[in-house]
Structure formats: C-alpha cells, structure tokens
C-alpha cells in the first residue's frame, strides 16, 4: 500500500538525483539480502538439529553435516530417548508444562490485579509502592535465586514445585505493563457508569476492568510462560531430585552424563529437538495474539 | 457527578495484597537474608574435625575483603565484561539493522525473515547452548569445527556471546520494529520529497527517533549480560576452556553449593547486585544524555 501511494514520490526523488533506480515493483535487494542472511543465521542450528536427529550415532560423526539419513535412525533415537531411565524424559516434559502453565497463569492473575489496582486507584502509599516495584526491575530476579534458595532451605521449603513457581510470580515488568495498560484502556467513564448502575467495585473490576485488559494479560501470560519455561538457574539451585526437573535441567543432566561419551550424543540431540518443537509450535500459533507493541510502548510513557 | 465519586473501597488493597506479600517474601526477604549472611561466618565447633555444633558468628567485612582480594573474582568479572563487550553491541546493531530492513520499502520475504529471526526466542537458553555446543564441537560441527577452534582462549568469548546474541536478537528486533511502525509516516515521506535516499532516511530520520526504544533494549541487554550463567554453565561439560568460576554467577554458585561457603557466596552475590544496579543506572543516564544531545 505504501509502495503504491509513494511510487510517484520515489520516481520524483530518483529524477532529482536520488540513488534508487526503478519503480514501485522492483525488489529492494540490499535489505532483502540482509534479512535473508539473518534468517539463515537464526534457522541454521535448528535445521542442523532436525537433520542430525535422523542419524544413527556412527552416521553423526561420519556423514555430511547437512545430509539427512533415512536408515531409521530418527525412530530408534526417539525410542532410546523415551526409554531412557524408565521414561524420565516424559516426566521432565510434564514438569515443564506444570511450571510454565501454572506459574504463568498465577503470575498473570497476581500482576494483572496489582497493575489494575495501581492504574485505576489512588490511595495512601500507592505512588510510593509503584516506585518501589518499578525500581525492582533493576534487580535481576535471577541473581536473587541463590538468596531465595538459602532462605527457603532454612525454612525447609526447597525441592518441590512451589519452590520453583512461587519466586517467579511477581514480575515488576509485568506489573508495570498492566498498570500502564489499565490507565490507558480502562476508561473512567465506563467504570463510573457501572458504579451509577449499582455495580460493586469487585464486579466492575471482574466484568469490565479484567475484560478490557485482556491484550495486556495475554502478553504477560506469554512473556511469563516463556520466561519460566526457559529459566535454568532457579530450578538448578532449588531442585536436586531429577524427577522434579523441567526439560532444561533434564537435558543439561543428560549432557553431563553423556559428556564424556560421544556415544550418547544422539539422545541429547533428539531430546533437544523434541523440546523445541512444541514451544515453537505454540509460539508461531500465538504470535499474532501477543502484542509486542505493549512491550515497546512502555518506554514512550 | 460529584456524588460520592470515590466510594470507600478496599478493593485496590485486596488486589495488591498477593503481589506485595510475594514481593516481600521472595525479593525483599531473600535480599535482606543475603546481606545478613554476607556479614557472618561459620565458627568451628568441637570434635575431631571441628564439625560438631558449629556456630555462626559475626564476621564484619571479612567476606567482602575476601571477595575483593580474590583475583579469580575479578577475572570472572573481566570475562563477563568481555562477553558483554562482544555481545551487547552485536545484539543492538544487528537487531536495529534487521528492524530497519523489515521497515524498508520493497524489501521482500519480510514475513518469512521476521518469523525466522524471531524463532530462537522460543528456544530455551540451555537448549540453545546445547545446539551451539554441537555446532562448535569438532566431532559434530557443521560449521568447520575442525579448522576453527571455537573454544580457543580468545575465540571462546565470541562463542559464548554468539549463543546469547542468537537467543535475544529476534525479540529485540520485534520490539524495535514495533516502535518503528509507530512513528509518523509523513515524516519519512517529507524526507523523501526533499530528496533523501532510503539509507539516509533510515540513518538520519528513523534512527534518532528510535532513541528511547534503543535505550530500553540496551539496558535490558546489559542486565542480561551481567546475569550470564546458562551459556557458560551448559558449555562447561564439553570444553576445558570454561572453569567452574568462569563468570561471577558461576563463582557464586560454586562458593555456595560446591565449597559450601554460603557466606562468601552471599557477599559475592550482594556485590553483584550492587554492580548490576550501578551499571544499569549508569547506562540509563549515559544513553539519556546521548538521546537528548541527538535531539538538538
């Protein structure tokens, strides 16, 4: 659309000594090539892992890196992965889902409520509280993992699901995002109208506020889901029983065990593939629902 | 409409309660506990090895002195900074370039490239490192691991930074691209009518207007770099080039869990938090000054 409306303008520019030749339908090669190089760089390791997972162990070290194999290596690798240690890989996958879905859901509720309260109400201490929470964005959550472990260990609360989920529920950034979004999208007039109609504060929050905030809540959910799914350090310090591990921990453990013996690489490779595919699928499916402009919009405020 | 504009309600306090409670419990309390621990030490008890009933006593600044006086602690900070010096500018420059290319007129394959470059964000950091580990290992490397020593004493910094850049590039690109799309188009058309080339528009008109977003992205990348842990920890089993104290967080982990000296670990992690906050504030201030100057 832009190309059509500015076609004449670009021709005028070219006529007055501009460097770009051609009309509106000509491909602009330089950005296209730069983008393609970037795409290849980002996709290459993933393509390699897909191909490598089709190889048997001896083929992995002998055949050409980007030539797939069709000798049934893929299925025997898969079988070996799911049979490993009485199927603990499945357990890790289930754990990852529990941590990420449970954590992201609770976190969205906690941060959404807090953001709404800070965005739509002024009360004693609210401004001050918001400042403290925003300042906590500077505090790297991950660096707190070790003090969190020390404290929880003192209280005997490590080595369970809660030890991994609870510390990740409050995200200063998510609260900030929800507050800014509530301020701009939940209009006071609508809330006032609900009040005049006799709705309680609770009711107008649940049926108006929460509904209007849906785009922000979906974004927070996805950010938190990916954050928790990818977190390594927190489960790494909190858990020492491998039946509680999420996928990331499990795969790391597999690599350590197999680190010395190249004979086990194929299990790790196919494990990496299996752990990427579901998340990449969810991600590609949901990518039009989540609003990155909310993330970048925060800086304009 | 002045009739009871604000009814008395405890709803906001109730809504904030879970967040505040969790914040106190999992951010403030552990932080405070770490500070407390950093000033303590273990005093040997009775028995043959001094392990019976050990007591915790006040140590003053002993743990901090130990951390400051330890060359390996500074080396670990140095390695972290080296990775940051490679990784942060690479992330910013590449993601800005890709965002500008996505926004360029008549560029092709835009949808495909955007998705492809965004894809690594869906790959967990540890898994990304495993992937690149195989790319680096001579035995399996499809990118010439036999001729290039990816774990060489200088190369290893690039190898680690590469994994980190690969993982965050797409996210930053989309953030920058989104804010680019939000800029007023008329300005670019006006510049075009004035005879500015596509490249000139990108560099002289679009780039300065991205300053606030680039500030945010830089600060986030910097915080990410200071928290470097996953990549070197995951690469450690496959190479001798990475020690168990390679970067500060690995050092803290080793202190606290391998050497069982949680007091030194606490002192080091508190120092790191102070350094991170200082670096973030400094970066923010510098970038804001730069942005203000470029506006004039």
From TrEMBL, chain A:
One of its GO terms (cellular component) is plasma membrane. This is Binding-protein-dependent transport systems inner membrane component. InterPro entries: MetI-like, MetI-like_sf. Residues 1-23 are annotated as: Disordered. GO terms for biological process: transmembrane transport. Residues 93-286 form the ABC transmembrane type-1 domain. The chain crosses the membrane at residues 29-52, 96-116, 128-149, 212-232, 262-286. Its main location: membrane. Keywords: Cell membrane, Membrane, Transmembrane, Transmembrane helix, Transport. It is a multi-pass membrane protein. It is found in: Cell membrane. The keyword Transmembrane helix applies. Residues 1-14 have a biased composition (Low complexity). Belongs to the binding-protein-dependent transport system permease family. SUPFAM superfamilies: MetI-like.
Automatic annotation (TrEMBL), chain B:
This is Binding-protein-dependent transport systems inner membrane component. One of its GO terms (biological process) is transmembrane transport. The keyword Acetylation does not apply. It is a multi-pass membrane protein. Belongs to the binding-protein-dependent transport system permease family. It is found in: Cell membrane. GO terms for cellular component: plasma membrane. Keywords: Cell membrane, Membrane, Transmembrane, Transmembrane helix, Transport. InterPro entries: MetI-like, MetI-like_sf, UgpAE/MalFG_permease. Coiled coil: none annotated. Residues 77-283 form the ABC transmembrane type-1 domain.
């Amino acid at each position: 659309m832009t190309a059509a409306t500015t076609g004449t303008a670009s021709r005028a520019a070219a006529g007055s000594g501009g460097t770009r030749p051609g009309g509106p339908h000509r491909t602009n090669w330089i950005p296209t090539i730069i983008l393609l190089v970037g795409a290849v760089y980002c996709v290459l390791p993933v393509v390699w892992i897909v191909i490598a997972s089709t190889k048997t162990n001896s083929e992995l070290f002998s055949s050409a890196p980007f030539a797939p194999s069709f000798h049934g290596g893929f299925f025997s690798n898969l079988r070996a992965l799911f049979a490993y240690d009485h199927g603990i890989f499945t357990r890790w996958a289930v754990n990852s889902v529990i941590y990420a879905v449970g954590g992201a859901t609770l976190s969205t509720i906690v941060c959404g409520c807090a953001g709404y309260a800070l965005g739509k109400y002024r009360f004693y201490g609210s401004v001050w509280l918001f400042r403290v929470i925003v300042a906590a964005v500077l505090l790297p959550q991950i660096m707190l993992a070790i003090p969190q472990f020390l404290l929880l260990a003192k209280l005997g609360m490590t080595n369970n699901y809660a030890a991994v989920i609870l510390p990740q529920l409050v995200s200063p950034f998510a609260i900030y995002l929800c507050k800014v979004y509530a301020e701009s999208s939940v209009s006071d007039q609508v809330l006032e109208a609900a009040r005049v109609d006799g709705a309680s504060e609770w009711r107008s929050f649940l049926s108006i506020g929460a509904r209007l905030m849906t785009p922000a809540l979906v974004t927070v959910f996805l950010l938190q889901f990916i954050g928790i799914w990818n977190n390594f350090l927190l489960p790494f310090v909190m858990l020492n029983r491998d039946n509680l591990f999420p996928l990331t921990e499990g795969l790391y453990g597999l690599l350590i065990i197999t680190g010395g013996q190249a004979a086990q690489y194929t299990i790790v490779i196919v494990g990496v593939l299996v752990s990427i595919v579901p998340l990449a699928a969810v991600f590609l499916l949901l990518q039009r629902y989540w609003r990155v402009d909310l993330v970048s919009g925060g800086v304009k405020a | 409409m002045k009739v009871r504009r604000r009814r008395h309600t405890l709803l906001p306090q109730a809504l904030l309660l879970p967040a505040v409670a969790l914040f106190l419990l999992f951010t403030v309390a552990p932080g405070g506990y770490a500070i407390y621990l950093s000033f303590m030490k273990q005093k040997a008890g009775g028995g043959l090895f001094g392990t019976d009933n050990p007591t915790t006593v006040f140590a003053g600044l002993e743990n901090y002195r130990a951390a400051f006086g330890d060359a390996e602690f500074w080396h670990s900070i140095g390695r972290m900074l080296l990775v940051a010096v490679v990784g942060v500018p690479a992330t910013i420059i590449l993601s800005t370039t890709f965002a500008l290319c996505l926004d360029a007129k008549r560029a092709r394959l835009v949808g495909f490239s955007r998705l492809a470059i965004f894809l690594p964000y869906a790959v967990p950091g540890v898994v990304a490192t495993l992937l690149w580990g195989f790319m680096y290992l001579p035995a399996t490397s499809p990118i010439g691991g036999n001729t290039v020593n990816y774990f060489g004493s200088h190369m290893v910094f690039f190898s680690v930074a590469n994994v980190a850049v690969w993982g965050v590039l797409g996210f930053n690109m989309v953030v920058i691209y989104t804010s680019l799309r939000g800029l007023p188009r008329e300005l670019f058309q006006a510049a075009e009518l004035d005879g500015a080339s596509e490249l000139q528009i990108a560099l002289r008109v679009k780039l300065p207007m991205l300053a606030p977003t680039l500030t945010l992205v830089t600060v986030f990348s910097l915080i990410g770099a200071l928290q470097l842990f996953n990549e070197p920890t995951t690469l450690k089993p496959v190479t001798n080039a990475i020690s168990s104290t390679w970067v500060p967080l690995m050092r803290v982990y080793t202190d606290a869990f391998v050497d069982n000296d949680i007091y030194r670990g606490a002192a080091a992690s508190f120092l790191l938090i102070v350094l991170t906050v200082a670096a973030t504030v400094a970066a923010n201030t510098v970038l804001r000054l730069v942005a203000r100057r470029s506006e004039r």
